[in-house]
Amino acid sequence: MTLGIKLKDVAVEFDGHIALSEINLDLTAKSVAVIGSNGSGKSTFARLLNGLVKPTSGSVKISGKAATTETTGFLFSNPDLQIVMPTVFEDVAFSLTNQKLSKDEVRVRVTAALSQVGLLELQESNCHTLSSGQKQLLAIASNIVREPKLLVADEPTTLLDLPNTVRITKLLHELELDQLVIVTHDLELAATCQEVVWFEGGRVRKAGKPKAVIAEYRKNFE
Ligand SMILES: Nc1ncnc2c1ncn2[C@@H]1O[C@H](COP(=O)(O)OP(=O)(O)OP(=O)(O)O)[C@@H](O)[C@H]1O
Ligand SMILES: [Mg+2]
């Protein structure tokens, strides 16, 4: 059972500029890709899912509840933006700051998260010495340590080379999540998801099975 991401009659306006309108979606697939041109509203949609953007009208529900940073983990394309502490271990532990856990509990959770992404050996390293791929793995660890039900990744592979793209894609699909949303311009990555939503001009142009949606998207630009 996935969480269910439900958007009902959602519109988002920024200072009179309409970024999204008439969005009605009921997403139940375990993994959902979001595609569309620059400025089509993908990141705005992604930010609705963790409550960083509030709908101007309509409602956004994750498993029947309001979307917040507690329900939803978030990955940016540039992992540098997510590093807040000097060392790898401290950076992941920082995500647990408000959870009232003992030092031992924090160590167990952080160690498990770092093992899952394959960064345990680098736990004492300075974050800024990591490669781009390793920084993205670190950002994933900092998210999963909080055990979110939903993870939203906004262009998580944009800065990565092919081996790291393959690695991060595989890892994202292997994480113990109820639902995963990946915003991407990489149609191969989009095709790894179970459902694809195509945004155009702030509206949903098409949503459904990857093959059909991606084929129509490609055709549109031929
Ligand atoms: N905080 C904001 N204030 C004002 N306008 C915004 C804000 N965020 C987004 N917009 C506008 O909303 C529209 C959709 O932007 P959004 O970032 O969602 O597009 P996108 O599909 O993610 O594009 P890209 O592929 O370039 O990342 C754009 O016209 C953008 O300028
Ligand atoms: Mg964007």
Describe how the helices and strands are arranged.
Layout: E1 5-14, E2 17-27, E3 31-36, H1 42-48, E4 57-62, E5 65-66, E6 72-75, H2 88-94, H3 103-117, H4 132-144, E7 150-154, H5 162-174, E8 179-183, H6 187-190, E9 195-200, E10 203-208, H7 210-220
Helix pairs in contact: 2-4, 3-4, 4-5
Magnesium ion binds at residues 42-43, 154.
Describe the structure.
The chain has helices at 42-48, 88-94, 103-117, 132-144, 162-174, 187-190, 210-220; strands at 5-14, 17-27, 31-36, 57-62, 65-66, 72-75, 150-154, 179-183, 195-200, 203-208. Helices cover 32% and strands 27% of the residues. It has 222 residues and is α/β, with parallel strands linked by helices. The mean pLDDT is 95. It has a six-stranded mixed sheet with strand order 6-7-8-3-9-10, with helices on both faces. It is globular and about 50 Å long. It has seven helices and ten strands. The protein starts with a strand and ends with a helix. Bound molecules: adenosine-5'-triphosphate and magnesium ion. Adenosine-5'-triphosphate binds at residues 14, 17, 19, 36, 38-44. Residues 42-43, 154 line the site of magnesium ion.
Q: Under the CATH scheme, which architecture of the largest domain would be assigned?
A: 3-Layer(aba) Sandwich
CATH topology of the largest domain: Rossmann fold
What is the terminal-to-terminal distance?
Answer: 38 Å
Low-confidence segments, given as residue ranges, are: none
Question: Structural class of the secondary structure composition?
Answer: alpha/beta
What is the approximate shape? globular
Biggest pleated sheet: 6 strands, mixed
Ligands present: adenosine-5'-triphosphate, magnesium ion
What does the average pLDDT come to? 95
